[in-house]
Write a structure and sequence with these properties.
The chain is α/β, with parallel strands linked by helices. It has one domain (about 10-250): TIM Barrel. The chain is built from ten helices and nine strands. The chain has helices at about 10-15, 30-40, 50-55, 65-75, 95-105, 125-140, 160-180, 190-200, 220-225, 235-255; strands spanning about 20-25, 25, 45, 85, 110-115, 145-150, 185, 205-210, 230. The strands form two sheets. Strands 2-3-4-5-6-7 form a six-stranded parallel β-sheet. Helix 7 (about 160-180) links the parallel strand 6 and strand 7 (about 185). The longest helix is centred in the last third of the chain and has 21 residues, at about 235-255. The chain is globular, with a radius of gyration of 18 Å.
Length: about 260
């Protein structure tokens, strides 16, 4: 287990600097994690959708938690840098079991989201804050230092008008930090003025996801005060898209599949 405040969790937490964000390309297996680390990035993040795809399941906690934890362990043992994991809503584990089983992988950070993976329904803000507080308390009781990235899905789930989504994201992010989260991840936000409003109003580090169609550069995000930049499953989809368009189709043209 990762005990105390001086290990990889502390290193990961210290990388979250507003205006000088930690950039973490999302990996999906040991091989991709090694590539991220060898490229010089100081930490590795995973994507639940990308890991699920490798395991043969859909995203949304369809993967058996045992398979997810085993995949995380392989990733952690393939690199020397800190690893943080997209752990959806915890796969139904109670806080104490979640901490115990997660810590056993060697990962030091995790995302926990506030909408139901299977339905997209937003979880009550107070309920989610209580859940995060219970995870933090369980971690402290077990002397496990975890970097908790509290994802809030108001933008992703289009919960209300744009103004209501912004207000709810700020409210939820503030609650989650008070409950023990280290960082807030308002997934689905892309406009500079909205990002600036979030960063100015949320009293802690903010994670922004950068997709393949992003118009804001990493320098733009840094200037807005973002503390963490991740990419979700977009990097895997880009790689696999290239594999299909540039490799498989070329082979199919050269060696047409037999038809029955």
């Amino acid at each position: 287990m990762n005990s105390g405040k001086t290990g990889k969790a502390a290193v990961l937490r210290g990388l979250h600097v507003p205006g000088n964000p930690v950039v973490m390309p999302n990996a999906w297996d040991a091989a991709s994690a090694r590539l991220v680390a060898e490229a010089g990035f100081p930490a590795v993040a995973t994507s639940s959708a990308a890991v699920a795809a490798v395991l043969g399941w859909d995203d949304g906690e369809a993967s058996p938690v045992e398979e997810v934890l085993a995949a995380v362990s392989r990733i952690v043992h393939s690199v020397s840098v800190p690893v943080t994991v997209d752990f959806e809503r915890g796969y139904g584990l109670k806080p104490a079991e979640l901490v115990e089983r997660f810590a056993g992988t060697g990962a030091v950070g995790l995302n926990l989201e506030d909408s139901e993976p299977a339905t997209g329904t937003m979880v009550d803000a107070a309920e989610q804050a209580d859940f995060l507080a219970a995870v933090r308390a369980a971690a402290e009781a077990a002397s496990v230092d975890l970097v908790i990235n509290a994802r809030t899905d108001c933008f992703l789930r289009r919960a209300g008008t744009p103004q209501e989504q912004l207000a709810a994201s700020i409210d939820r992010g503030t609650r989650y930090l008070a409950a023990g989260a280290d960082c807030v991840y308002p997934l689905g936000v892309a406009e500079s003025e909205v990002i600036r409003a979030l960063v100015e109003a949320i009293p802690g580090p903010v994670n922004v996801g950068r997709g393949p169609q992003a118009t804001l550069t990493l320098a733009d995000l840094a200037s807005l005060g973002v503390a963490r930049v991740t990419f979700g499953p977009s990097l895997q989809r880009t790689v696999y898209g290239w594999f299909v368009s540039s490799v498989l189709r070329s082979l199919a043209d050269e060696f047409p599949p037999a038809t029955g």
